């Protein structure tokens, strides 16, 4: 069975969906490079823990703004133009951070990369949802594409930092440009979208189910953003691993995320997705405890492997369990993802502030509390499901 048959993609939409997968892969390359090169930037620019927390949160703030705007801008200039114009901010951000260590400009550069990422996240999720019959598998493979890019990023950083960390930023900026060229040549609509009459676009704001799923994603994004942003710094600054090995660990995390998302795509039609979410959350917490409580490299790696594998499917699976009226709308998707992104803004700042007082290990430990809240809302989702409420 071909991929297009498995995903139930119409023939005329194959090139569009495949170009979207490549675009999201490149977004993973660029976005997850930031955490990998942050230690090298810290050495050259003399960045404190607090500043590193602020720039990581600036990336998420940019992501927040763009995801929200990407729900409305297509109504003015069309999806294709929105994707290319706003997504290109990633390229500008990467260029700025290679030119200066000025704190204000670094924060601005990270915000730009977040705006590019947020735009791409919103539109790609909606396009895949609209053009694949097997939506859960389509979304899991979309996020697996992102994971492939995220897996490659730290390896590039390992090589680049031995010579010049800027090389990796320049290379991935070039990949982003190539992705925009493919997007420009695809049959994604460039015409302004038409709004539904009667304010139907905002019906989801009154839905408890919509906000429950958004809250689950809020805590998941907080966990993912903090891990991908601070993981290399944690292993490096605690002396548990060298810089190059720490960067390799980030790639290992994304290998497991990739494998986990592919597994979720394969299993999504066989098992109850809400039960899958609860199992993933419990195993995430167990893996995190193992990673944080161990001094043995083998046990740390085992915890990291489990963490990456079990956290992998939370985001796309949660999206796929939402009412199709929500994840089929750029406005609803924009509000959902942008609200969830606030978690990715707040937790990295909290980690940076706690690390200034109690060290990086204490800062990273705060991630566990986000996992606890995420599980609690998943259990509420399951209770509602058993009562026939979704």
Structure write-up:
By secondary structure, the protein is mainly alpha-helical. It has 19 helices and no strands. Helix 11 packs antiparallel against helix 12. The longest helix has 30 residues, at 208-237. The chain is globular.
Shape: globular
Following the backbone from N to C, one meets helices and strands in this order, namely HHHHHHHHHHHHHHHHHHH
N/C terminus separation: 32 Å
Gyration radius (Cα, Å) is: 20 Å
Please give the largest β-sheet: none
State the share of residues found in helices, binned by percent.
Answer: over 70%
Estimate what percentage of residues fall within beta strands. under 5%
If helices are DSSP runs of H or I spanning 4 or more residues, what is the number of helices? 19
Q: Give start-end ranges of low-pLDDT stretches.
A: none
Task: Please state the average pLDDT score.
Answer: 84
Count the strands?
A: 0
Q: What structural class should be given to the helix and strand makeup?
A: mainly alpha
